Amino acid sequence: MGPAGYTPSSMTSPMAVSPHVPPATECGRTDTSTSAGLQKPLIDVRNLVKHFPVTAGMFFSRRTGVVRAVDGVSFAIPKGATVGLVGESGCGKSTVARLLLRLIEPTSGEVWFGETELTKAPPEQMRRLRRDMQIVFQDPHSSLNPRRRVGEIIGRPLMIHGLANKRQATERVHELLSMVGLSPAMASRFPHEFSGGQRQRIGIARALALNPSFVVLDEPTSSLDVSVQAQILNLLNDLKAKLGLTYLFVSHNLSVVEYFCDLTLVMYLGKIVEAGPSDVLHAEPLHPYTKALMSAVLVPEVGQQRERIILTGEIPSPMNPPQGCRFHTRCPYAMDVCKAVEPALSEQAAGHQVACHLYQSR
Ligand SMILES: Nc1ncnc2c1ncn2[C@@H]1O[C@H](COP(=O)(O)OP(=O)(O)O)[C@@H](O)[C@H]1O
Ligand code: SF4
Ligand SMILES: [Mg+2]
Predict the structure, then answer these.
(1) Ligand 2 near 136 CB (within 6 A)
(2) To the nearest 5 percent, what fractions of the chain are helix, strand and coil?
């Protein structure tokens, strides 16, 4: 079941990811875009790594290790698609999201936005590109400045980029408020006067102010009630269709991702462990971790035989991830090889890839 009342209109997306996704390349890249009928990717991520240094000491801080938040991730987002990135808290989803928008610099790897490699774009080009890529944050309460009126919050990106005078900005704010289902008269109010769902609509309006083509949705409904979640997902779907947007949708909830996204990437401890068209991945999850995530959210239908894996144990520290397969400390199928050799992503069916020794010889 999807979220209450949510109609997955994205399932008729022109991206029709299903059987068209071509094989992975040598580096395990989930190439979703180059076969016949699909457009070139809008976003192309190649072997992306982000290690955060960990330091100790009050006055003479010394480096004591690194957090391997993202550890060699490759995937592509076709123009017009909604790609879901799913995994438990702390697995590196938000770090990937921030790297894609170059809000932080990668340790290594490349992020291509169309024809431009973002990590090498000079500041002036980056400033122009920033208009085209926006983010909606998880918590609309903390991401909206409580001291600014809603009109200022939504219109601010226009003023910062020098794209509108005051009158034009006001008109655009009114247009954006209507677009997200709020009254233009609400522009003069402060964020605390709104409900959680309304605040997230304001966050969405702000993200759309500059007419972006790519929007990262970082757990945009996680802090909302279930009924409100469905409304926001429907709004996001309508806006995507109307404005021709491309989304990266970050979530810890696999059932929401399945209904909202054309393609799903499952992440565990800084790595992508399974990737594929959402309907295929949902019908036949392969990686034991994906199965465990599904077991946590799915109530099997009557007569449906689905293997259930209950996750036990804590997620290991990304400062010291397990050798071999990073999931082996929690995997009910772990074999000796899993402790020594890291499995690479390999294709099992059209566009459906998994990194697990159980499937290496298939
Ligand atoms: N600025 C930072 N400095 C150090 N560690 C960080 C920083 N940002 C994130 N991390 C760590 O990186 C890992 C991944 O975090 P994050 O990307 O936020 O995961 P998720 O969004 O999946 O919950 C976590 O262990 C987190 O503590
Ligand atoms: S590689 Fe081994 S430990 Fe990792 S998920 Fe597969 S069976 Fe489990
Ligand atoms: Mg996060």
Answers:
(1) no
(2) 35, 25, 40
The answer to whether the CB of 327 is under 6 A from ligand 2 is: yes
Pairing, β 271-277 against β 263-268: antiparallel
User: The pTM is what?
Assistant: 0.88
Cα 355 to ligand 2 centre (Å): 8
The b-or-e profile of 184-209 (16+ CB within 10 A means b, else e) is: eebbebebeebebbbbbbbbbbbbbb
Q: Which two tokens stand for residue 124?
A: 């002036």
Convert the pLDDT of each residue in 176-195 to its tens digit: 999 999 999 999 999 999 99
Q: Any idea what DSSP says for residue 337?
A: H
* CA distances (Å), origin 13, targets 219, 237, 263, 356: 21, 10, 11, 30
Going by alpha carbons, the residue nearest to atom 6 of ligand 2 is 356
Long-range contacts of 309-317 (CB under 8 A, 24+ apart): 315/88, 315/90, 315/91, 315/269, 316/269
Radius of gyration of the chain (CA): 21
Query: What is the DSSP pairing of strand 108-113 with strand 214-218?
Result: unpaired
Helix axes 196-208, 166-179, angle to 10 degrees: 130
Residue that has been written with the tokens 């409904």 in this structure? 221
How many whole angstroms from 93 Cα to the centroid of ligand 3?
Answer: 6
Give the mutation target among 273, 312, 328, 342 for probing the ligand 2 site: most ligand atoms within 8 A of CB: 328
List, for residues 95-128, the tens digit of each pLDDT value.
999 999 999 999 999 999 999 999 999 999 999 9
What token pair was written down for 169? 């900005």
Ligand 2, from 273, 311, 325: best to mutate by most atoms within 8 Å of Cβ?
325
- 196-208 vs 226-243: helix axis angle to the nearest 10? 20
| Cβ of residue 333 lying under 6 Å from some atom of ligand 2 | yes
Contact between residue 241 and residue 162 where contact means Cβ atoms under 8 Å apart: no
Phi, psi (rounded to 5 degrees) for 14 = -60, -15
